[in-house]
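Hello Y.,

Per our agreement to keep a running log of every chain we model this quarter, I'm adding this entry. I've kept the format consistent with earlier entries: sequence first, then predicted structure.
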Amino acid sequence: MRAYLFVAMLLLVIFGSIGGYLYARFSAFSKMDFTPPPVTIAAGVARAERWDQHLQAVGSIKAVRGVDLTSETSGEVTAIEFVSGQQVEAGQLLVVLNDEVEQASRRSQIASLDLAKILFERDQKLVQQKSIPQSQYDRSKADLESARAQLAETEARIKNKHIDAPFTGTLGILQVDVGDYVSPGTVIAALQDLDELEIDFTLPARFAPLLRPGLAIELQVGAFPEKVFSATLSALDSRVDPDTLNLLARARIHDSGGLLPGMFASLRIALGTADEVLTVPETAITYSLQGSTVYVIREDSSGQLTVDAVVVQVGEVRDGRVGILRGLEAGQQIVTAGQNKLFRGASVRIDATVQL
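Predicted structure for the entry above:
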Protein backbone atom coordinates (compact mmCIF):
# COMPACT_ATOMS: atom_id res chain seq x y z
CA MET A 1 0.00 0.00 0.00
CA ARG A 2 2.80 2.34 0.92
CA ALA A 3 4.54 1.42 -2.41
CA TYR A 4 1.49 2.47 -4.44
CA LEU A 5 1.32 5.72 -2.57
CA PHE A 6 4.99 6.36 -3.25
CA VAL A 7 4.56 5.74 -7.00
CA ALA A 8 1.57 8.04 -7.13
CA MET A 9 3.45 10.78 -5.37
CA LEU A 10 6.40 10.31 -7.74
CA LEU A 11 4.19 10.54 -10.85
CA LEU A 12 2.47 13.60 -9.42
CA VAL A 13 5.83 15.30 -8.94
CA ILE A 14 7.01 14.37 -12.47
CA PHE A 15 3.86 15.51 -14.29
CA GLY A 16 3.61 18.56 -12.12
CA SER A 17 7.13 19.53 -13.09
CA ILE A 18 6.36 19.00 -16.75
CA GLY A 19 3.15 21.00 -16.51
CA GLY A 20 4.93 23.81 -14.72
CA TYR A 21 7.64 23.88 -17.34
CA LEU A 22 5.12 23.97 -20.20
CA TYR A 23 3.08 26.65 -18.45
CA ALA A 24 6.17 28.80 -18.03
CA ARG A 25 7.12 28.36 -21.71
CA PHE A 26 3.63 29.16 -23.03
CA SER A 27 3.40 32.14 -20.73
CA ALA A 28 6.68 33.44 -22.15
CA PHE A 29 5.47 32.82 -25.72
CA SER A 30 2.22 34.67 -25.05
CA LYS A 31 4.15 37.72 -23.97
CA MET A 32 6.33 37.73 -27.12
CA ASP A 33 5.48 40.08 -30.09
CA PHE A 34 5.13 38.11 -33.34
CA THR A 35 4.11 41.13 -35.41
CA PRO A 36 6.27 41.18 -38.60
CA PRO A 37 8.65 44.13 -38.87
CA PRO A 38 7.68 46.98 -41.22
CA VAL A 39 8.54 46.43 -44.89
CA THR A 40 10.97 48.96 -46.30
CA ILE A 41 9.54 50.55 -49.42
CA ALA A 42 10.04 53.55 -51.70
CA ALA A 43 7.21 56.02 -51.97
CA GLY A 44 5.92 58.56 -54.43
CA VAL A 45 2.92 60.83 -54.83
CA ALA A 46 0.03 60.75 -57.29
CA ARG A 47 0.11 64.15 -58.91
CA ALA A 48 -1.92 66.06 -61.49
CA GLU A 49 -0.10 67.02 -64.69
CA ARG A 50 -1.08 68.64 -67.98
CA TRP A 51 -0.43 66.35 -70.90
CA ASP A 52 -0.64 67.41 -74.52
CA GLN A 53 -3.51 65.65 -76.24
CA HIS A 54 -2.51 63.50 -79.21
CA LEU A 55 -3.66 60.63 -81.41
CA GLN A 56 -1.88 57.45 -82.43
CA ALA A 57 -1.93 56.01 -85.96
CA VAL A 58 -0.03 53.74 -88.31
CA GLY A 59 0.75 54.71 -91.90
CA SER A 60 2.70 53.82 -95.02
CA ILE A 61 5.50 56.02 -96.34
CA LYS A 62 5.47 56.97 -100.02
CA ALA A 63 7.39 59.31 -102.30
CA VAL A 64 5.76 62.57 -103.36
CA ARG A 65 7.05 61.67 -106.84
CA GLY A 66 7.26 57.95 -107.39
CA VAL A 67 6.26 55.81 -110.37
CA ASP A 68 6.76 52.42 -111.95
CA LEU A 69 8.36 53.10 -115.34
CA THR A 70 6.48 51.35 -118.14
CA SER A 71 6.34 51.47 -121.92
CA GLU A 72 3.44 53.02 -123.81
CA THR A 73 4.02 50.73 -126.78
CA SER A 74 5.20 47.21 -127.59
CA GLY A 75 8.65 46.34 -128.81
CA GLU A 76 11.96 44.63 -128.26
CA VAL A 77 14.42 46.21 -125.82
CA THR A 78 17.51 47.19 -127.82
CA ALA A 79 19.37 49.35 -125.28
CA ILE A 80 19.36 49.98 -121.53
CA GLU A 81 21.09 53.19 -120.48
CA PHE A 82 21.09 52.80 -116.67
CA VAL A 83 21.96 50.37 -113.90
CA SER A 84 19.88 49.34 -110.89
CA GLY A 85 19.96 51.87 -108.06
CA GLN A 86 21.30 54.70 -110.22
CA GLN A 87 20.47 58.34 -109.58
CA VAL A 88 19.07 59.87 -112.78
CA GLU A 89 18.07 63.35 -113.91
CA ALA A 90 14.75 64.42 -115.40
CA GLY A 91 14.69 63.71 -119.17
CA GLN A 92 17.61 61.25 -119.06
CA LEU A 93 17.30 58.39 -121.58
CA LEU A 94 16.77 55.06 -119.84
CA VAL A 95 15.53 52.42 -122.31
CA VAL A 96 15.31 52.18 -126.10
CA LEU A 97 12.91 49.86 -127.94
CA ASN A 98 13.42 48.65 -131.51
CA ASP A 99 12.44 51.59 -133.74
CA GLU A 100 13.98 50.60 -137.09
CA VAL A 101 10.62 50.67 -138.89
CA GLU A 102 9.75 54.07 -137.46
CA GLN A 103 13.19 55.47 -138.32
CA ALA A 104 12.79 54.28 -141.93
CA SER A 105 9.35 55.87 -142.09
CA ARG A 106 10.80 59.07 -140.66
CA ARG A 107 13.47 59.28 -143.38
CA SER A 108 10.85 58.73 -146.06
CA GLN A 109 8.55 61.35 -144.56
CA ILE A 110 11.39 63.87 -144.28
CA ALA A 111 11.97 63.47 -148.01
CA SER A 112 8.25 63.85 -148.68
CA LEU A 113 8.16 66.97 -146.52
CA ASP A 114 11.11 68.48 -148.39
CA LEU A 115 9.36 67.86 -151.70
CA ALA A 116 6.10 69.30 -150.36
CA LYS A 117 7.96 72.44 -149.28
CA ILE A 118 9.51 72.87 -152.74
CA LEU A 119 6.17 72.43 -154.51
CA PHE A 120 4.41 74.76 -152.09
CA GLU A 121 7.01 77.50 -152.49
CA ARG A 122 6.85 77.18 -156.31
CA ASP A 123 3.04 77.25 -156.37
CA GLN A 124 3.07 80.19 -153.97
CA LYS A 125 5.06 82.24 -156.47
CA LEU A 126 3.00 81.04 -159.44
CA VAL A 127 -0.32 81.83 -157.80
CA GLN A 128 0.91 85.35 -157.14
CA GLN A 129 1.70 85.60 -160.85
CA LYS A 130 -1.72 84.11 -161.62
CA SER A 131 -0.01 81.35 -163.61
CA ILE A 132 -1.86 78.55 -161.76
CA PRO A 133 -5.36 78.33 -160.33
CA GLN A 134 -5.95 78.94 -156.65
CA SER A 135 -7.05 75.31 -156.18
CA GLN A 136 -3.60 74.01 -157.15
CA TYR A 137 -1.99 76.31 -154.61
CA ASP A 138 -4.45 75.13 -151.95
CA ARG A 139 -3.59 71.48 -152.73
CA SER A 140 0.13 72.25 -152.38
CA LYS A 141 -0.46 73.91 -149.05
CA ALA A 142 -2.56 70.96 -147.82
CA ASP A 143 0.09 68.47 -148.99
CA LEU A 144 2.73 70.40 -147.02
CA GLU A 145 0.64 70.35 -143.82
CA SER A 146 -0.10 66.64 -144.32
CA ALA A 147 3.59 65.85 -144.74
CA ARG A 148 4.39 67.75 -141.54
CA ALA A 149 1.65 65.93 -139.63
CA GLN A 150 2.83 62.50 -140.84
CA LEU A 151 6.40 63.28 -139.81
CA ALA A 152 5.22 64.52 -136.38
CA GLU A 153 3.21 61.31 -135.91
CA THR A 154 6.22 59.14 -136.73
CA GLU A 155 8.48 61.15 -134.44
CA ALA A 156 5.93 60.70 -131.65
CA ARG A 157 6.03 56.91 -132.18
CA ILE A 158 9.83 57.03 -132.05
CA LYS A 159 9.66 59.07 -128.83
CA ASN A 160 7.40 56.44 -127.29
CA LYS A 161 10.14 53.90 -127.94
CA HIS A 162 12.68 56.03 -126.07
CA ILE A 163 11.76 55.90 -122.38
CA ASP A 164 13.08 58.88 -120.40
CA ALA A 165 13.11 59.68 -116.69
CA PRO A 166 10.05 61.89 -115.98
CA PHE A 167 11.76 63.48 -112.95
CA THR A 168 14.98 63.37 -110.98
CA GLY A 169 15.16 60.42 -108.64
CA THR A 170 16.64 57.04 -107.77
CA LEU A 171 15.93 53.98 -109.89
CA GLY A 172 15.11 50.62 -108.38
CA ILE A 173 15.97 47.13 -109.58
CA LEU A 174 15.94 46.68 -113.37
CA GLN A 175 13.12 44.31 -114.38
CA VAL A 176 13.97 43.76 -118.10
CA ASP A 177 17.02 42.86 -120.19
CA VAL A 178 18.17 43.69 -123.71
CA GLY A 179 16.28 41.42 -126.08
CA ASP A 180 13.13 41.19 -123.95
CA TYR A 181 9.83 41.96 -125.66
CA VAL A 182 7.77 44.39 -123.60
CA SER A 183 4.11 45.28 -123.87
CA PRO A 184 2.27 48.40 -122.70
CA GLY A 185 2.24 48.33 -118.90
CA THR A 186 5.33 46.14 -118.47
CA VAL A 187 7.26 47.48 -115.46
CA ILE A 188 10.85 48.36 -116.34
CA ALA A 189 11.95 49.74 -112.95
CA ALA A 190 10.65 51.87 -110.09
CA LEU A 191 11.70 55.53 -109.94
CA GLN A 192 11.43 57.31 -106.59
CA ASP A 193 12.39 60.82 -105.53
CA LEU A 194 13.73 60.04 -102.04
CA ASP A 195 14.24 63.70 -101.17
CA GLU A 196 10.52 64.32 -100.69
CA LEU A 197 8.49 61.73 -98.80
CA GLU A 198 5.01 61.72 -97.34
CA ILE A 199 2.95 59.30 -95.30
CA ASP A 200 -0.68 58.25 -95.67
CA PHE A 201 -2.65 57.03 -92.65
CA THR A 202 -6.22 56.69 -91.45
CA LEU A 203 -8.02 57.75 -88.30
CA PRO A 204 -11.56 57.06 -87.06
CA ALA A 205 -13.97 59.62 -88.46
CA ARG A 206 -14.95 60.79 -84.95
CA PHE A 207 -11.59 62.55 -84.70
CA ALA A 208 -12.19 64.62 -87.84
CA PRO A 209 -13.20 67.80 -85.90
CA LEU A 210 -9.81 67.72 -84.12
CA LEU A 211 -7.72 67.48 -87.28
CA ARG A 212 -6.49 70.33 -89.45
CA PRO A 213 -3.54 70.85 -91.82
CA GLY A 214 -0.44 72.08 -90.04
CA LEU A 215 -0.59 69.81 -86.98
CA ALA A 216 2.82 68.55 -85.87
CA ILE A 217 3.44 64.80 -86.15
CA GLU A 218 6.18 62.54 -84.79
CA LEU A 219 6.80 59.21 -86.46
CA GLN A 220 9.01 56.19 -85.88
CA VAL A 221 9.90 53.23 -88.08
CA GLY A 222 11.26 49.84 -87.16
CA ALA A 223 14.47 50.41 -89.13
CA PHE A 224 15.40 53.35 -86.86
CA PRO A 225 13.99 52.45 -83.42
CA GLU A 226 15.89 55.22 -81.62
CA LYS A 227 15.14 58.02 -84.09
CA VAL A 228 12.04 60.22 -84.19
CA PHE A 229 11.16 61.83 -87.53
CA SER A 230 9.03 64.96 -87.80
CA ALA A 231 6.20 65.62 -90.20
CA THR A 232 3.30 68.02 -90.73
CA LEU A 233 -0.28 67.13 -91.50
CA SER A 234 -0.79 68.40 -95.05
CA ALA A 235 -4.18 67.17 -96.23
CA LEU A 236 -7.38 65.37 -95.23
CA ASP A 237 -9.57 63.38 -97.58
CA SER A 238 -12.85 64.96 -98.62
CA ARG A 239 -14.90 61.94 -97.55
CA VAL A 240 -15.04 59.15 -94.99
CA ASP A 241 -14.63 55.57 -96.16
CA PRO A 242 -18.17 54.15 -95.82
CA ASP A 243 -16.83 50.61 -95.26
CA THR A 244 -14.34 51.34 -92.45
CA LEU A 245 -15.66 54.74 -91.23
CA ASN A 246 -12.06 55.95 -91.34
CA LEU A 247 -10.73 59.24 -92.68
CA LEU A 248 -7.64 59.20 -94.88
CA ALA A 249 -4.96 61.78 -94.03
CA ARG A 250 -1.56 62.68 -95.47
CA ALA A 251 1.50 64.25 -93.86
CA ARG A 252 4.69 65.66 -95.39
CA ILE A 253 7.90 64.31 -93.81
CA HIS A 254 10.50 66.98 -93.10
CA ASP A 255 13.73 65.02 -92.70
CA SER A 256 13.47 61.87 -94.80
CA GLY A 257 17.10 60.76 -94.47
CA GLY A 258 17.25 56.95 -94.60
CA LEU A 259 13.51 56.40 -95.05
CA LEU A 260 12.22 54.45 -98.04
CA PRO A 261 8.81 54.34 -99.70
CA GLY A 262 6.79 51.37 -98.51
CA MET A 263 8.00 51.48 -94.90
CA PHE A 264 5.36 51.38 -92.18
CA ALA A 265 5.57 53.94 -89.39
CA SER A 266 3.79 54.67 -86.13
CA LEU A 267 2.58 58.25 -85.80
CA ARG A 268 1.89 60.51 -82.85
CA ILE A 269 -0.28 63.47 -83.87
CA ALA A 270 -0.22 66.46 -81.52
CA LEU A 271 -3.65 68.12 -81.41
CA GLY A 272 -2.43 71.37 -79.88
CA THR A 273 -4.54 71.01 -76.71
CA ALA A 274 -3.72 69.76 -73.19
CA ASP A 275 -5.68 67.73 -70.62
CA GLU A 276 -5.16 67.48 -66.86
CA VAL A 277 -4.18 63.90 -66.02
CA LEU A 278 -3.53 62.20 -62.66
CA THR A 279 -0.22 60.33 -62.93
CA VAL A 280 1.91 57.94 -60.88
CA PRO A 281 5.35 56.45 -61.53
CA GLU A 282 5.20 53.46 -63.84
CA THR A 283 6.86 51.30 -61.14
CA ALA A 284 3.89 51.88 -58.83
CA ILE A 285 1.62 49.67 -60.93
CA THR A 286 1.38 45.98 -60.03
CA TYR A 287 -0.86 43.43 -61.68
CA SER A 288 -3.22 40.96 -60.03
CA LEU A 289 -6.30 38.94 -60.85
CA GLN A 290 -8.39 41.99 -59.97
CA GLY A 291 -6.50 44.18 -62.46
CA SER A 292 -3.91 46.94 -62.19
CA THR A 293 -3.21 47.69 -58.53
CA VAL A 294 -1.53 50.49 -56.60
CA TYR A 295 -0.57 50.28 -52.91
CA VAL A 296 -1.74 53.44 -51.13
CA ILE A 297 0.08 54.40 -47.91
CA ARG A 298 -2.13 55.30 -44.94
CA GLU A 299 -1.39 56.27 -41.31
CA ASP A 300 -3.36 54.54 -38.55
CA SER A 301 -4.39 56.00 -35.20
CA SER A 302 -1.08 54.99 -33.59
CA GLY A 303 0.94 56.74 -36.26
CA GLN A 304 2.03 53.49 -37.92
CA LEU A 305 2.16 53.50 -41.73
CA THR A 306 0.22 50.73 -43.46
CA VAL A 307 -0.75 50.01 -47.05
CA ASP A 308 -4.01 49.30 -48.80
CA ALA A 309 -4.21 47.74 -52.27
CA VAL A 310 -6.37 49.83 -54.62
CA VAL A 311 -7.48 48.67 -58.07
CA VAL A 312 -7.05 51.45 -60.64
CA GLN A 313 -7.81 52.04 -64.30
CA VAL A 314 -4.66 53.02 -66.15
CA GLY A 315 -4.31 55.13 -69.27
CA GLU A 316 -1.42 56.33 -71.36
CA VAL A 317 2.25 55.96 -70.40
CA ARG A 318 4.62 58.89 -70.94
CA ASP A 319 8.19 59.39 -69.78
CA GLY A 320 7.99 56.78 -67.03
CA ARG A 321 4.63 57.91 -65.63
CA VAL A 322 1.21 56.32 -66.07
CA GLY A 323 -2.05 58.19 -66.40
CA ILE A 324 -4.67 57.02 -63.87
CA LEU A 325 -8.23 57.29 -65.13
CA ARG A 326 -9.97 56.05 -61.97
CA GLY A 327 -9.11 54.84 -58.47
CA LEU A 328 -6.76 57.48 -57.03
CA GLU A 329 -6.79 61.12 -56.01
CA ALA A 330 -4.09 63.73 -56.38
CA GLY A 331 -1.75 63.96 -53.40
CA GLN A 332 -2.13 60.36 -52.23
CA GLN A 333 1.15 58.72 -51.19
CA ILE A 334 1.80 55.46 -52.97
CA VAL A 335 4.37 52.66 -52.98
CA THR A 336 6.76 52.80 -55.93
CA ALA A 337 9.16 49.97 -55.03
CA GLY A 338 9.12 46.94 -52.74
CA GLN A 339 5.59 45.74 -53.52
CA ASN A 340 6.65 42.09 -53.74
CA LYS A 341 6.63 41.83 -49.91
CA LEU A 342 3.40 43.73 -49.33
CA PHE A 343 -0.11 42.61 -48.52
CA ARG A 344 -3.25 44.46 -47.54
CA GLY A 345 -2.72 46.11 -44.15
CA ALA A 346 1.03 45.48 -44.04
CA SER A 347 3.16 47.88 -41.99
CA VAL A 348 5.74 49.79 -44.00
CA ARG A 349 8.74 52.00 -43.49
CA ILE A 350 9.59 54.56 -46.20
CA ASP A 351 13.12 54.71 -47.45
CA ALA A 352 13.58 58.47 -47.69
CA THR A 353 16.65 58.10 -49.92
CA VAL A 354 14.48 56.87 -52.82
CA GLN A 355 11.75 59.16 -54.11
CA LEU A 356 9.93 58.74 -57.43
